[in-house]
Amino acid sequence: MSTRAGTRGRVGIVGAVKIDLARLHGAWMEIVFPRQRGRGHSVMGKWKPETLPQAITYYGWYLIGALGLLVLYPLAVFGLATRFYASKLDSTATRLGVVGVTVLAIVIWGLLSLVAYLELPWNSFLAVAAASSVAVVSTTIAAVSSKYGGRATTVLLAYPFAMTAIFLPPVVAALVTPSLEPYVLEPSYDFAAWLLDNVLFVGGANEFLRENYELEGAAYAGMWFGFSVSTGWFLGLLVALANLVRPSPDSGDDS
Fold first, then answer.
1. Among residues 73, 142, 204, 237, which is most buried (max CB within 10 A)?
2. CA separation (Å) from 211 to 199, 203, 206?
3. Which pTM value belongs to this model?
């Protein structure tokens, strides 16, 4: 791993990009064809097509992979950045331990609940306290999943629960605190409108949502919960893609 890292340091950004693209494309080619990835110093060498049908299939598959990289590689770069910051948070969580992370979450969201208790009516306080409790539980689940689970568990559980812990309590606080509405709910409405017009138009999903649901009250919390889970899965998949391009030092993959 250190040799590969040193090589990337010498070749610069352009050279590192070429290495990454070759690694990804070689992995793609090996799905169908043998001996495609990292065969530069192999005695047997890289497999090449020998007949016209083999050549058509080979270069067709090659072209599909090359076009796919135009989309996947920028996502992989974003995944590398996500992995970097996630590793910083994970190292902090490791030092604190699951209990320490849970206590820290209790302190942070407990302070929000305390402010709600002092400033808001009882029912509003209960809403904030419930959201803060969800955030604490979500933080604990994320920490446990990251510490004791594998990569699949981290993607399926750790990232979504971590995002839920971040997004849900402020939205609930804004629902019961009118002064926060211009800073949380109004931007949320604009964001929902953008998603409907630019993302969820496929298959008429935006029309179905507009006809059957109103974005008001608890629907804001539901919206941000769904967004937290989907964003967590998306970020987790980007990190998995980044690990394919450049395995992290602790992955044990030096291929």
1. 142
2. 17, 14, 9
3. 0.69
